[in-house]
Amino acid sequence: MSPRASNTSAKKTYSYLGPEGTFTELALAQVAEAKGANHRSVAHVQEAIDDVISGRAFRAIIPVENSVEGGVSATADALAITENVRIYGEYLVPVTFDLVARPGTVLKDVRTVSTHPVAYAQTRAWLSANLSQHAHLPATSTAAAAAALLDNDFADAAVAAPTIVKHYGLKTLARNIGENKNAQTRFIQIGLAGPMPEPTGRDKTSVIVELPTDRPGALLEMLEQFAARGVNLSRIESRPIGDRLGRYRFNIDAQGHIADSAVSEALMGLHRFSPKVLFLGSYPRADKQKSVHEGNNSNVEFADAASWLKQLKAGK
Amino acid sequence: MSPRASNTSAKKTYSYLGPEGTFTELALAQVAEAKGANHRSVAHVQEAIDDVISGRAFRAIIPVENSVEGGVSATADALAITENVRIYGEYLVPVTFDLVARPGTVLKDVRTVSTHPVAYAQTRAWLSANLSQHAHLPATSTAAAAAALLDNDFADAAVAAPTIVKHYGLKTLARNIGENKNAQTRFIQIGLAGPMPEPTGRDKTSVIVELPTDRPGALLEMLEQFAARGVNLSRIESRPIGDRLGRYRFNIDAQGHIADSAVSEALMGLHRFSPKVLFLGSYPRADKQKSVHEGNNSNVEFADAASWLKQLKAGK
Amino acid sequence: MSPRASNTSAKKTYSYLGPEGTFTELALAQVAEAKGANHRSVAHVQEAIDDVISGRAFRAIIPVENSVEGGVSATADALAITENVRIYGEYLVPVTFDLVARPGTVLKDVRTVSTHPVAYAQTRAWLSANLSQHAHLPATSTAAAAAALLDNDFADAAVAAPTIVKHYGLKTLARNIGENKNAQTRFIQIGLAGPMPEPTGRDKTSVIVELPTDRPGALLEMLEQFAARGVNLSRIESRPIGDRLGRYRFNIDAQGHIADSAVSEALMGLHRFSPKVLFLGSYPRADKQKSVHEGNNSNVEFADAASWLKQLKAGK
Amino acid sequence: MSPRASNTSAKKTYSYLGPEGTFTELALAQVAEAKGANHRSVAHVQEAIDDVISGRAFRAIIPVENSVEGGVSATADALAITENVRIYGEYLVPVTFDLVARPGTVLKDVRTVSTHPVAYAQTRAWLSANLSQHAHLPATSTAAAAAALLDNDFADAAVAAPTIVKHYGLKTLARNIGENKNAQTRFIQIGLAGPMPEPTGRDKTSVIVELPTDRPGALLEMLEQFAARGVNLSRIESRPIGDRLGRYRFNIDAQGHIADSAVSEALMGLHRFSPKVLFLGSYPRADKQKSVHEGNNSNVEFADAASWLKQLKAGK
Question: One matching Pfam family, short form (chains A, B, C, D) (predicted)?
């Protein structure tokens, strides 16, 4: 067998925030091109990013936003200090929580509930009502909390994704105990910078923008870079830069693709305005909604304006 | 002894996010009027808020922002759904981390380090360099991680505030291991709505504002409510409303006091513009810097404009 | 008869930009309260303003805007340097022009046409087509041009309002020769500052605003004083301040009445922002259209916001 | 001599708003390339524009702005309806007025003063003080008023430029009688569209922009097209479009040259935003002041942003 054939047959690796049985695995299941590839479970977001940068993984699937708890700050902050990584797709996963325990445990026996703090926040109302005396043992993930039930007896039950019982010998004590029945988590597929997904008319562009220091109204000015080109934002989230209180960077999802003239001009505007702007990629929206640029900011209008300008410059 | 005398002599209670030995205790130590009062340690932010609402505590001290990890989302979200609570003061506490262990433990023996995830994020660089093989056991607070060292041997060391060794029989293995030597946490003092601190010229006003739905440019319009009155923002932080992805509320600290005309007009502007705006209070800035309203927006200018208007209306 | 009775029976005087037979007379005819009063024809706008200031006239009717030629700059500039004068009403007069001549003159005999430069601009197309060799003799008004035909033979014909033939022994050579068949002139009724017309929901407020010097974006900031309160402008016209090139004042008509909260707050905003703002009055719109304030800026919303603020300040 | 050689040697013609002896002639004297060319005096602004369009003149010099009286509306309106004409330069002329009369006339004999209405407005204060009983006879220009003194005796004196006595047998009765001693008139040189003056760093770009109909805040949006690219305006003047009251076009002078990236992007933004935008040219400023684009909007910053974008699009 030739090395070339060997290369061709080699499977690509997709890392994902594990362990097995977490919601991230459900996001990975939505990635068509990851079917039949290697799936590699990692312990935290930074490890997934490191896999991509080192080439150990072709791509990684990590959570980026949760409709209840907000931005997953570890992801936002890790991306902000990483060069050369891009987003290639986004995926929405409905978030439902079950209470699981070792076989033989019944609800009234539960004293200590282990789970990730985010999952705990989403189920605290149910737990307080049904287990008023329970204590919470934080875990690094819902799946880790469930798995640990089989390793030790620090906790009596775990809050985890319904699919967890497919992976571990646990039983479900209560279903769908989350407060918000419409909760979703948004995941992204990241990889090294490379050819971007083609524009589809239903796209999103993500950037991280720092504001000029000590300039009142800088946020307003930054937003006008989008508004002047009719580009709508679907998300804006502030994160502290971390060097001192009062300095923020903004994680922004704008409607449209870098191949759209309105978006590319807005990006250049940000680049001039901001001391640091990080482009994270253009990719199809998970909600499949159309990305419309307000006003007269279609590609055709941009092209018309450019040829008008060209004529003017030629003295016509 | 009359009941009245008894009432008068009864000490007020200040709840704080405990346990003893956390950074919140250092913030509480800055609250002059809490000297000699009862100090009540609570397990989480919601419990502190509940103490205030039920009257169990007169006031509570809770963390609100950390220069490294950003807004303490539990506080932001709890305040957003609470009526009738106000902020009465803010306090800055330098954040330095030590590594502590049971007496007899030496650095090279440490395999598992327990601490709160935020503290872990701030010390991971040092831990990775000096304890490359360590595992992290999350805890609900740095103090809880330290206290647990004396209860069980799940962890070998804890990352905690330097003062922790005053409360527990632990010894310090390494000092000041945090990445950011200027890190600070900002705490607030909350209480039931009542008379506000007097304006000092160095004040801050906090609000939580929801944006009108599905209106492109709504954030920009909201910011213009401040800009049109020359009011600068010292902090803006988005948090998901939680009913579905894509809906945000904004936690805002504006410079100035509700008694300042520029601020009160901006607040009324927000009230008209926003489907929901929550006033959290006006209180002196911890950094003691002057709160200047840009442009001609002093109280004197506002008063001049009001008497001019009055004259015009009187037909003069 | 007592002086007092005499005073009571004395008729009020309405000055108007004359002479008799101009369009201003048609505007005066729309002023209900001027029926049966003294009508005093004056030679120029400043004289009309002087009549009002000196008390010689109770009110004066002067042109302020012409849909073809723009602002009547003499009026705009005279008002800008006058204190204590207010606008009490506005009136729209359709502008149609006829060519008139001495009896016996026929069209082909006309060599020289006299009229006011504004009227000439509006009829030049017809005159060029029908009297290709004509010369233009400028006059101070269309009526003066017509009257002069009977005094001397410098001109053979005049362009004037159709009603001119009621005042002078002239005949009409051609009707409705203006280029723009929808042309209108807008007139205002001015008087000394005093009680304003009551708000009708269909009102207009006029101001003259200077911009702060040498501040890029000052015009934008000024417009935001209106926008932040949802007040729409129906007219904005720049005029040079006159001390040097590059300095402008803006004559602005905003929708709404000073009794509307949105308008009064915007006025106070202008007063703080601008080095000089002149209030010219609130009065019913001639076009009878409703003056809607954009967004949530009704009086009810303003009152709600004010009582909300009052409660907050009371510590509730 | 061949016709071709003849053509080559033929002098170019510069039309100017005459007659001889007006301020426009002083502007023409500032045009270096017009030295030794044919100078053609025309009767009104439209004739000058027609000369340029028909090719009768290579260029024309016309007044565009007067620091006392504002925009010369005939010029603004004529340019607004003309295609294919460009501004090639601007010139500032100090405006001083003298009172001139036929030899033998003394001041106290003067009953009727003839002059252009603009000049009359600027000298009315002096005339009222020194000739309290005088009448005003309007003329099409100051020079025409002066020339007519020798043709007929309708007027006894004329207000005109000091140089008028070089052209006509008149004598000066009083010097520098204008109210504003710093008055200036700004003139422009127009020609058919062709190669533009090179950028000098001290340039100006003129456009005429219509606003989208019935869109509150359209003026603000238009101004943001400049602001988002840091382009300052040195002049904005509204003129009625003329089809009905309430519709305006804006004559704008922006700092910078179409060859400056900030200006060209702003122009394209206007082209998309506005139903009609007319480019009048980029040319050196008469006041020789530097045209700075606010913020980070230099050509270098634009080029950096463009190459950054190019790299991003290439997937790097």
Answer: ACT
Structure confidence at residue A214 (pLDDT): 60
Instruction: Tell me the per-residue pLDDT of D188-201, one tens digit each, with 9 for 90 and over.
Output: 999 999 999 999 99
How many B/C residue pairs have CB atoms within 8 Å?
87
Kindly tell me the burial class for residue D229, based on how many C-beta atoms sit within 10 Å of its own C-beta (0-12, 13-18, 19 or more): buried
CA dist B309 → A95, C251, C292 (Å): 56, 19, 21
* H or E element that contains D48: helix D45-54
pLDDT per position as a tens digit, A172-215: 999 999 988 877 889 999 999 999 999 999 999 999 999 887 66
**Residue in A193, A272, A301 closest to D272 by CB:** A301
How many domains does one find in chain C?
3
Q: What is the pLDDT of residues A264-311, one digit of tens each?
A: 999 999 999 999 999 999 999 998 888 877 778 899 999 999 999 999
Identify the residue whose tokens are 């603000």.
D220
Domain presence at residue C56: yes
Both D127 and D248 in one domain: the answer is no
Chain B residue with the nearest C-alpha to that of A93:
B245
Could you report the per-residue pLDDT of D304-314, keeping only the tens digit for each?
A: 999 999 999 99
Segment C123-182, tens digit of pLDDT: 989 999 999 989 888 776 788 899 999 998 889 999 999 989 999 999 999 999 998 887
Q: Which residue, C308, A42, C249, is CA-closest to B258?
A: C308
Size of interface A-D (CB pairs under 8 A): 87
Tell me the per-residue pLDDT of D205-250, one tens digit each, with 9 for 90 and over. 999 999 887 666 788 889 999 999 999 888 888 887 766 666 788 9
If asked whether residues C154 and C277 sit together in one domain, one would say no
Assess whether D242 and D285 both reside in one domain: yes
What pLDDT sits at residue B1?
Answer: 36
Cβ neighbourhood burial of B292 (10 Å; 0-12, 13-18, 19+): middle
Any idea what the CATH number is for the domain that residue B84 is in?
3.40.190.10
Which residue carries 């024809």 as its tokens? C41
Helices A261-273/A218-227 angle, 10° precision: 160
Q: Which of residues 272-291 of D touch A (CB under 8 A)?
A: 272-273, 279
Backbone angle region of C134, left / alpha / beta, with phi > 0 → left and psi within -120 to 50 → alpha: beta
**Across the interface, do B248 and A233 touch by the CB < 8 Å criterion?**
no
Helix (H) or strand (E) holding B135: strand B135-138
Strands of the B112-115 sheet, one edge to the other: B135-138, B112-115, B157-160, B98-101, B171-174
Q: Do the Cβ atoms of D101 and D155 come closer than 8 Å? A: no
Nearest to A143 by CA among A43, A39, A61, A49: A43
Higher-pLDDT residue of B281, C3 = B281
- pLDDT reading at C76 higher than 60: yes
In a domain, C2, yes or no: no
User: Residue B205 maps to which CATH number?
Assistant: 3.30.70.260
Chain A residues touching residue D86 (CB < 8 angstroms): 315
User: What does pTM read for this prediction?
Assistant: 0.84
Q: Indicate yes or no: CB of D302 within 8 angstroms of CB of A265.
A: no
Contact D295 A305 (CB under 8 A): no
Both D270 and D229 in one domain: the answer is: yes
Contacts of B316 in chain C (CB under 8 A): 193
Residue A5 lies in a domain: no
| Residue D259: domain span | 196-316
Work out the number of other CB atoms within 10 angstroms of the CB of residue C82: 17
Interface of D with A in 72-111 (CB under 8 A): 86
3-state secondary structure of C112: strand
Determine contact: C301 vs chain B, CB below 8 A: yes
Closest residue in C to D239 (Cα) is C70
- Distance (Å, rounded) from C-alpha B150 to C-alpha B277? 46
SS3 D188: strand
Under a CB-based contact definition with an 8 Å cutoff, are residues C46 and C140 in contact? Answer: no
